[in-house]
Amino acid sequence: MALTESAQRIFLGFALALIIGAILGILIGVSKLADETLGTLVIALQSVPSIVWLPLAMVMLGGGTASILFVVVLGGTWPMTMNMRMGIKNVPPILIRAAKTMGYNRSELIWKVMIPASIPSALTGARLAWAFAWRALMAAELIGRGGLGRTLMDARDFFNMELVIAIMIIISVIGLIMEYLVFRKIEQRVLSRWGLAK
Fold first, then answer.
1. Taking a C-beta distance cutoff of 8 angstroms, is the pair 21, 84 a contact?
2. Is 198 among the domain residues?
3. pTM to 2 decimal places
4. What confidence tens digit (pLDDT) does each residue in 22-40 have?
């Protein structure tokens, strides 16, 4: 039950973080004005540990899933945003010049050149977003309600060290599964597709 609850929270929060982070990253990457204003704010917020937002979230949203989900989304959004921004900013100028020579307008330049070229950076952002979101979830559940984190705290309070160790192993195994069975496989396909595989 606790594992299912945590899984639902992390996958929903992670998905939202990817969507929000990608949109923000593209906006900041293509707009100088957005980079100088919104980009500065993102950098500032990135330095604030996501768990710090939990008390505020609990006041605004209550102590349930909504507040924990809020923290998880914040944990994953900023690394996704910054990596997407860097991917857009680091598109080789020759690709942009070639696209302009072919008559691409600004919208086509963004969707057909800049975003596809930034996919490897976006993948790195997704991997970091997962790591930060997963840690944020565990930290939030220690203070909030339900999930593996709350079960871990309850086990500690009742001096059930076997359960504590079992939950720590579960948390580690989930991290390994995501890294080796999800992100590594996606990375191999992306690098192969983009001609970057060694």
1. yes
2. no
3. 0.89
4. 999 999 999 999 998 999 9
